[in-house]
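In this section we walk through a basic example: taking a raw amino acid sequence and producing a predicted 3D structure, encoded as C-alpha coordinates. The instruction is simple. Fold the sequence below.
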Amino acid sequence: MKNLKKLFNPKGFIGSILVVLVVLIAIFAPLIIPPEYATRMDMRARLSPPDFSHWLGTDQLGRDLFYRMMLGARTSINIAASAVLISLIIGLPLGLISGYFGGRVDNVLMRLVDTLLSFPALLLALTISAVLGPSMQNTIIAIGIAFTPYLARLIRGEALRVSQMPYVEAAISSGATHLRLIIGHVLPNIMPVIIVQSTISLAFAILAEAGLSFLGLGTQPPEASWGLMIQASRDYLDRAPWTALVPGTAVALTVLGLNMFGDVLRDVLDPRSD
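The resulting C-alpha coordinate sequence is shown next.
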Protein backbone atom coordinates (compact mmCIF):
# COMPACT_ATOMS: atom_id res chain seq x y z
CA MET A 1 0.00 0.00 0.00
CA LYS A 2 2.86 2.34 0.84
CA ASN A 3 4.54 1.72 -2.51
CA LEU A 4 1.23 2.05 -4.34
CA LYS A 5 0.79 5.56 -2.95
CA LYS A 6 3.96 6.58 -4.77
CA LEU A 7 2.12 6.09 -8.05
CA PHE A 8 -0.19 8.96 -7.14
CA ASN A 9 2.43 11.48 -6.08
CA PRO A 10 2.82 14.56 -8.34
CA LYS A 11 5.57 13.00 -10.46
CA GLY A 12 3.69 9.75 -10.89
CA PHE A 13 0.42 11.51 -11.65
CA ILE A 14 1.92 13.83 -14.27
CA GLY A 15 3.91 11.02 -15.87
CA SER A 16 0.87 8.73 -15.99
CA ILE A 17 -1.30 11.44 -17.55
CA LEU A 18 1.28 12.18 -20.25
CA VAL A 19 1.82 8.50 -21.08
CA VAL A 20 -1.91 7.71 -21.17
CA LEU A 21 -2.59 10.77 -23.34
CA VAL A 22 0.07 9.84 -25.89
CA VAL A 23 -1.08 6.21 -26.00
CA LEU A 24 -4.70 7.26 -26.52
CA ILE A 25 -3.69 9.61 -29.33
CA ALA A 26 -1.59 6.88 -30.97
CA ILE A 27 -4.49 4.42 -30.80
CA PHE A 28 -7.49 6.56 -31.64
CA ALA A 29 -6.18 9.40 -33.82
CA PRO A 30 -5.81 7.19 -36.93
CA LEU A 31 -9.36 5.91 -36.34
CA ILE A 32 -10.79 9.42 -36.23
CA ILE A 33 -8.56 11.35 -38.64
CA PRO A 34 -8.33 10.08 -42.25
CA PRO A 35 -4.71 9.21 -43.15
CA GLU A 36 -4.74 11.51 -46.17
CA TYR A 37 -5.11 14.52 -43.86
CA ALA A 38 -1.44 14.13 -42.89
CA THR A 39 -0.26 14.44 -46.50
CA ARG A 40 -2.87 16.81 -47.92
CA MET A 41 -1.09 19.90 -49.28
CA ASP A 42 -2.34 23.47 -49.62
CA MET A 43 0.40 25.60 -51.15
CA ARG A 44 -1.64 28.75 -50.56
CA ALA A 45 -1.37 28.12 -46.82
CA ARG A 46 2.29 27.03 -46.67
CA LEU A 47 4.12 28.06 -43.48
CA SER A 48 0.95 29.58 -42.06
CA PRO A 49 1.12 30.35 -38.32
CA PRO A 50 -1.39 28.76 -35.94
CA ASP A 51 -4.92 30.06 -36.47
CA PHE A 52 -8.51 28.83 -36.43
CA SER A 53 -8.07 27.06 -39.78
CA HIS A 54 -4.81 25.34 -38.81
CA TRP A 55 -4.59 25.03 -35.03
CA LEU A 56 -0.83 24.38 -34.97
CA GLY A 57 0.07 26.00 -38.28
CA THR A 58 1.30 24.39 -41.50
CA ASP A 59 4.65 23.23 -42.85
CA GLN A 60 6.56 24.16 -46.01
CA LEU A 61 4.14 22.15 -48.17
CA GLY A 62 0.99 23.53 -46.57
CA ARG A 63 0.30 20.35 -44.60
CA ASP A 64 -1.58 20.78 -41.35
CA LEU A 65 0.78 20.23 -38.41
CA PHE A 66 -2.01 19.27 -36.02
CA TYR A 67 -3.03 16.32 -38.18
CA ARG A 68 0.59 15.34 -38.81
CA MET A 69 1.42 15.46 -35.12
CA MET A 70 -1.63 13.41 -34.15
CA LEU A 71 -1.13 10.78 -36.87
CA GLY A 72 2.63 10.79 -36.37
CA ALA A 73 2.15 9.68 -32.76
CA ARG A 74 1.25 6.17 -33.88
CA THR A 75 4.28 5.95 -36.15
CA SER A 76 6.72 7.09 -33.47
CA ILE A 77 5.16 4.95 -30.73
CA ASN A 78 4.98 1.89 -33.00
CA ILE A 79 8.65 2.20 -33.93
CA ALA A 80 9.72 2.69 -30.30
CA ALA A 81 7.57 -0.15 -28.93
CA SER A 82 8.62 -2.56 -31.68
CA ALA A 83 12.30 -1.73 -31.17
CA VAL A 84 12.05 -2.32 -27.41
CA LEU A 85 10.25 -5.61 -28.10
CA ILE A 86 13.11 -6.73 -30.36
CA SER A 87 15.67 -5.82 -27.70
CA LEU A 88 13.66 -7.86 -25.18
CA ILE A 89 13.38 -10.88 -27.49
CA ILE A 90 17.16 -10.92 -27.97
CA GLY A 91 18.41 -9.47 -24.69
CA LEU A 92 16.18 -11.37 -22.26
CA PRO A 93 17.40 -14.90 -23.09
CA LEU A 94 21.00 -13.65 -23.40
CA GLY A 95 20.90 -12.05 -19.96
CA LEU A 96 19.03 -14.93 -18.31
CA ILE A 97 21.34 -17.64 -19.65
CA SER A 98 24.47 -15.63 -18.92
CA GLY A 99 23.47 -14.69 -15.38
CA TYR A 100 22.07 -18.08 -14.42
CA PHE A 101 24.79 -20.38 -15.74
CA GLY A 102 27.78 -18.06 -15.26
CA GLY A 103 31.25 -19.40 -15.93
CA ARG A 104 32.35 -19.90 -19.53
CA VAL A 105 28.85 -19.30 -20.89
CA ASP A 106 28.74 -15.95 -19.11
CA ASN A 107 32.20 -14.98 -20.38
CA VAL A 108 31.39 -15.76 -24.02
CA LEU A 109 27.99 -14.05 -24.06
CA MET A 110 29.12 -10.98 -22.13
CA ARG A 111 32.13 -10.45 -24.39
CA LEU A 112 29.69 -10.30 -27.30
CA VAL A 113 27.54 -7.85 -25.36
CA ASP A 114 30.59 -5.79 -24.37
CA THR A 115 31.59 -5.53 -28.02
CA LEU A 116 28.24 -3.96 -28.85
CA LEU A 117 28.40 -1.76 -25.73
CA SER A 118 31.68 -0.28 -26.97
CA PHE A 119 29.64 1.65 -29.56
CA PRO A 120 27.25 4.43 -28.50
CA ALA A 121 23.67 3.23 -29.00
CA LEU A 122 22.71 5.99 -31.45
CA LEU A 123 25.89 5.53 -33.48
CA LEU A 124 25.29 1.78 -33.66
CA ALA A 125 21.67 2.33 -34.71
CA LEU A 126 22.78 4.87 -37.31
CA THR A 127 25.36 2.44 -38.75
CA ILE A 128 22.89 -0.45 -38.94
CA SER A 129 20.23 1.77 -40.50
CA ALA A 130 22.72 3.07 -43.07
CA VAL A 131 23.73 -0.48 -44.02
CA LEU A 132 20.16 -1.79 -44.23
CA GLY A 133 18.75 1.33 -45.90
CA PRO A 134 16.27 3.94 -44.67
CA SER A 135 12.80 2.56 -43.94
CA MET A 136 10.47 2.15 -40.99
CA GLN A 137 11.19 -1.59 -40.67
CA ASN A 138 14.96 -1.09 -40.78
CA THR A 139 14.71 1.71 -38.21
CA ILE A 140 12.95 -0.69 -35.83
CA ILE A 141 15.65 -3.34 -36.37
CA ALA A 142 18.48 -0.83 -35.94
CA ILE A 143 17.17 0.64 -32.70
CA GLY A 144 16.22 -2.79 -31.35
CA ILE A 145 19.72 -4.19 -31.92
CA ALA A 146 21.37 -1.05 -30.55
CA PHE A 147 19.40 -1.29 -27.29
CA THR A 148 19.87 -5.05 -26.84
CA PRO A 149 23.27 -5.02 -25.06
CA TYR A 150 22.10 -2.56 -22.40
CA LEU A 151 19.08 -4.69 -21.59
CA ALA A 152 21.07 -7.94 -21.70
CA ARG A 153 23.69 -6.56 -19.30
CA LEU A 154 21.03 -5.38 -16.84
CA ILE A 155 19.13 -8.69 -16.95
CA ARG A 156 22.36 -10.63 -16.54
CA GLY A 157 23.16 -8.75 -13.33
CA GLU A 158 19.70 -9.33 -11.89
CA ALA A 159 19.65 -13.00 -12.93
CA LEU A 160 23.07 -13.48 -11.30
CA ARG A 161 21.78 -11.96 -8.07
CA VAL A 162 18.56 -13.97 -7.98
CA SER A 163 20.24 -17.26 -8.91
CA GLN A 164 22.30 -17.04 -5.71
CA MET A 165 19.26 -16.64 -3.46
CA PRO A 166 18.58 -19.40 -0.89
CA TYR A 167 15.23 -20.38 -2.41
CA VAL A 168 16.91 -21.00 -5.78
CA GLU A 169 19.59 -23.11 -4.14
CA ALA A 170 16.86 -25.04 -2.31
CA ALA A 171 15.06 -25.66 -5.60
CA ILE A 172 18.32 -26.94 -7.11
CA SER A 173 18.75 -29.31 -4.18
CA SER A 174 15.22 -30.62 -4.69
CA GLY A 175 16.11 -31.63 -8.25
CA ALA A 176 14.42 -28.86 -10.25
CA THR A 177 15.58 -28.57 -13.87
CA HIS A 178 17.42 -25.53 -15.18
CA LEU A 179 14.47 -24.56 -17.36
CA ARG A 180 12.05 -24.76 -14.45
CA LEU A 181 14.38 -22.70 -12.26
CA ILE A 182 14.82 -20.00 -14.89
CA ILE A 183 11.13 -19.74 -15.79
CA GLY A 184 9.67 -20.43 -12.35
CA HIS A 185 12.10 -18.64 -10.02
CA VAL A 186 14.57 -16.36 -11.75
CA LEU A 187 12.37 -14.72 -14.40
CA PRO A 188 9.41 -13.80 -12.11
CA ASN A 189 11.77 -12.15 -9.62
CA ILE A 190 13.46 -9.94 -12.20
CA MET A 191 10.26 -8.93 -14.02
CA PRO A 192 9.92 -5.63 -12.11
CA VAL A 193 13.35 -4.56 -13.33
CA ILE A 194 12.51 -5.61 -16.89
CA ILE A 195 9.23 -3.68 -16.85
CA VAL A 196 10.85 -0.51 -15.53
CA GLN A 197 13.78 -0.69 -17.94
CA SER A 198 11.45 -1.31 -20.88
CA THR A 199 9.44 1.78 -19.98
CA ILE A 200 12.56 3.94 -19.83
CA SER A 201 13.89 2.34 -23.02
CA LEU A 202 10.72 3.47 -24.81
CA ALA A 203 11.70 7.07 -24.11
CA PHE A 204 15.20 6.57 -25.53
CA ALA A 205 13.76 4.70 -28.53
CA ILE A 206 11.51 7.66 -29.36
CA LEU A 207 14.55 9.96 -29.22
CA ALA A 208 16.53 7.52 -31.38
CA GLU A 209 13.75 7.39 -33.99
CA ALA A 210 13.63 11.19 -34.05
CA GLY A 211 17.40 11.33 -34.46
CA LEU A 212 17.52 8.78 -37.29
CA SER A 213 14.61 10.42 -39.10
CA PHE A 214 16.26 13.82 -38.72
CA LEU A 215 19.38 12.42 -40.42
CA GLY A 216 17.27 10.91 -43.22
CA LEU A 217 17.83 7.30 -42.11
CA GLY A 218 14.52 6.71 -40.37
CA THR A 219 10.92 7.11 -41.46
CA GLN A 220 10.64 8.26 -45.06
CA PRO A 221 8.17 10.72 -46.65
CA PRO A 222 5.25 10.93 -47.00
CA GLU A 223 4.81 9.08 -43.66
CA ALA A 224 4.09 11.32 -40.69
CA SER A 225 6.45 10.89 -37.73
CA TRP A 226 7.70 13.37 -35.19
CA GLY A 227 11.32 12.91 -36.20
CA LEU A 228 10.53 13.43 -39.87
CA MET A 229 8.59 16.60 -39.02
CA ILE A 230 11.60 17.99 -37.16
CA GLN A 231 13.85 17.11 -40.09
CA ALA A 232 11.56 18.92 -42.53
CA SER A 233 11.52 22.06 -40.37
CA ARG A 234 15.27 22.69 -40.20
CA ASP A 235 15.34 25.12 -43.14
CA TYR A 236 12.44 27.20 -41.83
CA LEU A 237 13.29 27.75 -38.16
CA ASP A 238 13.74 31.50 -38.60
CA ARG A 239 10.53 32.04 -40.59
CA ALA A 240 8.26 29.37 -39.14
CA PRO A 241 9.55 28.17 -35.74
CA TRP A 242 6.27 26.38 -35.04
CA THR A 243 7.19 23.73 -37.61
CA ALA A 244 9.89 22.52 -35.21
CA LEU A 245 8.19 23.44 -31.94
CA VAL A 246 5.13 21.26 -32.56
CA PRO A 247 6.92 17.90 -33.11
CA GLY A 248 9.72 18.87 -30.70
CA THR A 249 7.21 19.51 -27.93
CA ALA A 250 5.46 16.21 -28.67
CA VAL A 251 8.76 14.32 -28.38
CA ALA A 252 9.81 16.20 -25.24
CA LEU A 253 6.51 15.66 -23.40
CA THR A 254 6.39 11.97 -24.34
CA VAL A 255 9.95 11.34 -23.22
CA LEU A 256 9.36 13.34 -20.03
CA GLY A 257 6.20 11.37 -19.27
CA LEU A 258 7.87 8.00 -19.87
CA ASN A 259 10.87 8.90 -17.72
CA MET A 260 8.70 10.18 -14.87
CA PHE A 261 6.42 7.16 -15.09
CA GLY A 262 9.41 4.81 -15.22
CA ASP A 263 10.97 6.38 -12.11
CA VAL A 264 7.75 6.03 -10.13
CA LEU A 265 7.18 2.52 -11.45
CA ARG A 266 10.63 1.56 -10.21
CA ASP A 267 9.76 2.83 -6.72
CA VAL A 268 6.47 0.93 -6.76
CA LEU A 269 7.79 -2.39 -8.07
CA ASP A 270 11.19 -2.48 -6.36
CA PRO A 271 10.80 -4.33 -3.05
CA ARG A 272 14.08 -2.81 -1.87
CA SER A 273 12.68 0.74 -2.10
CA ASP A 274 11.68 2.56 1.04
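Looking at the output, two observations stand out. The first helix runs from residue 2 to 5. The mean pLDDT is 88. In the next section we compare this with other chains.
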